[in-house]
Amino acid sequence: MPGARLPETDLIAKQALQDLLLILDLGGTFVFAISGAMVGVRQRLDIFGVLVLAFAASSAGGIARDLLIGAVPPAAVSDWRYFAVAMAAGLVTFLWSSPVSRLHTPILAFDAVGLAFFAVSGAEKALAFGLNPLMAALLGMLTGIGGGMTRDILVSSTPSVLKGDLYAVAALGAAALVVVGKLLGWPVVPTAVGAGLLCLAIRLLAIRRGWGLPVAPGSEGREEPGSPGGH
Predict the structure, then answer these.
(1) Which positions ≥6 away from 129 have C-beta within 8 Å?
(2) pLDDT digit string (tens) for 132-146?
(3) For residue 73, is the peptide bond before it cis, meaning its omega torsion is within 30 degrees of 0?
(4) pTM for this structure?
């Protein structure tokens, strides 16, 4: 009977969504861990400090997301793959510390890619847990910016999201596109890819062209978008 296949179809769709979320999460974990470790290398931290930054940058946003939607314990601490990916990325970056210490643009690029991965996965997971569209978009943004904020705070740098950068805006744009796609019934994977590319494009263009949000008139010592603390 046609109806008898529906549960199996639903099961396949659910598994496909879980696989997509895992891929996005692990991808974001990897690139944000590299971003965090690169900042640690530039700050001349020892290997423990570099690995701490790698884990913090790669996990803070996802942990915050999971706690807020009730997915406990958070995947970053309950699934060994997250920790293994973060540590591997941190170690590789530390071992190549000599060339890495001279790099700035690659840190920005890895940070932008991680932002795209986590903004999309955050919104997707929030929708999967039944959050309303507005909260799902905001949670996607939080997932994206959480790791970078934590990394910057640990090295005593003002997070980029607070300095006029199009950082949170890029994450929110990606998360909003995921939500719109869900509401309009668009295919999940193409929508996720498009949302990630949107976030990446906004962030990289902001870095390249110095785009940023307005700051208060007469502000002193404003740093250029994308220029501080490892960004």
Answers:
(1) 69, 70, 71
(2) 999 999 999 999 999
(3) yes
(4) 0.83
